[in-house]
């Protein structure tokens, strides 16, 4: 399936994370959008592999993107705190090291979908994470995400 839109934030993240060797996946609505889900988002959600080395690479990549990380934020990223929300850069960014509904990064990595060089969580993982989070906004989005998953699977078979 071909993407027919531009997502400059995702492109900047992808390019910086590749330069710094960060292992990550787009997750949440930003991941779904990269797969072709018809929606918009103001931030990006990333599932980052938890390790000190990967965390340090992530900090370097974020700084190269213009994020003004505090010492505390950098330490949280390096140690892989479950959830780190950043609002001190060129756009809002959520780093998730332990998303609800997904057992391990490695399992999600094996199921990932590559879209134009973007490593994206499989729609099943995006849906499982939103189901497990069980927030009102996630429950409201789930029917549309499930319908999109079915459409996406049909398109991949065609």
Mean pLDDT score: 94
* Radius of gyration (Å): 15 Å
Number of helices: 7
| Helix proportion | 40-55%
Question: What's the helix-strand series?
Answer: HEHEHHEEHEEHH
What does this structure look like?
The protein is of the alpha+beta class and 158 residues long. The chain has a single domain, classed as Beta Polymerase, domain 2 (2-Layer Sandwich), CATH 3.30.460. Helices cover 53% and strands 15% of the residues. It is built from 7 helices and 6 strands. It has helices spanning 8-20, 28-35, 52-65, 71-79, 105-111, 123-133, 136-157, and strands at 24-26, 43-48, 83-86, 92-96, 113-115, 118-120. The strands form 2 sheets. Strands 1-2-4-3 form a 4-stranded mixed β-sheet, sandwiched between helices. A two-stranded antiparallel ribbon has the order 5-6. Helix 1 crosses helix 3 (52-65) and helix 2 packs antiparallel against helix 6. The chain is globular. 34% of the residues are buried.
Short description:
With 158 residues, this protein is an alpha+beta fold.
Question: In terms of topology, how is this protein built?
Answer:
Elements: H1 8-20, E1 24-26, H2 28-35, E2 43-48, H3 52-65, H4 71-79, E3 83-86, E4 92-96, H5 105-111, E5 113-115, E6 118-120, H6 123-133, H7 136-157
Helix pairs in contact: 1-3, 2-6, 3-4, 6-7
């Amino acid at each position: 399936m071909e993407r027919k839109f531009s997502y400059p934030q995702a492109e900047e993240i992808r390019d910086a994370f590749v330069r710094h060797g960060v292992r990550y996946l787009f997750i949440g609505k930003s991941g779904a959008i990269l797969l072709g889900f018809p929606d918009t988002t103001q931030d990006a959600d990333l599932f980052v592999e938890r390790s000190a080395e990967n965390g340090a690479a992530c900090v370097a990549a974020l700084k190269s993107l213009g994020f003004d990380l505090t010492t505390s934020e950098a330490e949280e990223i390096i140690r892989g705190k479950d959830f780190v929300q950043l609002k001190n850069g060129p756009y809002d960014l959520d780093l998730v090291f332990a998303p609800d509904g997904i057992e391990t990064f490695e399992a999600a990595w094996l199921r990932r979908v590559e879209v134009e060089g973007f490593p994206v969580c499989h729609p099943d993982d995006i849906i499982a994470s939103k189901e497990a989070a069980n927030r009102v906004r996630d429950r409201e989005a789930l029917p549309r995400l499930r319908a999109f998953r079915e459409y996406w699977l049909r398109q991949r078979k065609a």
